[in-house]
Amino acid sequence: MLALLAAGAQPPPPEYSEDDERRHGKQKQQQQQQLGSVDLIEMQQREVDVRQLQSDLRELAQLFADLNTLVRGQQEQLDTIEANISSAAVSTGKGRDELAKGVKLQKKSRRKMLCLLAILVIILIAVAIALAVTFGHH
């Protein structure tokens, strides 16, 4: 054999017995089964993860629907408040105008009362003078 190696020839491949081949086949089969088991476990875990993700997405969609309902309800309330504020602003403007008219009327009323009082005083003075003149001659 050394002569063959010295001549540059390849050594003959090692010979495998049938037992070696069976053991080697069983090892390969066991490795494939282990790999298959790992793949199956990974696939099952992925399926669990996907189902959890789907559940989370449904929950998120429900939260958005609830939020939308709340926002719509609040929008109606805001619209009502806005309408009330506008109405209050109009009423306040009308009230201010009525108060201004009332102040003017009150001033005019005071002037009229003072004029009537002055006329009454003048009439009383005239009556007093007339009575004094009439009774003063007797």
What features would you highlight for this structure?
138 residues; mainly alpha; 90% helix; rod-shaped; disordered N terminus
The mean pLDDT is 84
User: Which class best fits the helix and strand makeup?
Assistant: mainly alpha
Number of helices: 2
| Cα separation of the termini | 188 Å
Radius of gyration, CA atoms, in whole angstroms: 57 Å
Low-confidence spans: pLDDT under 50, at least 5 residues?
Answer: 1-5
What features would you describe in this structure?
The chain has 138 residues and is an all-alpha fold. It is built from two helices and no strands. 0% of the residues are buried.
Topology of this structure?
Blueprint lengths: L1 H5 L11 H119 L2
What's the gist of this structure?
The chain is mainly α and about 140 residues long.
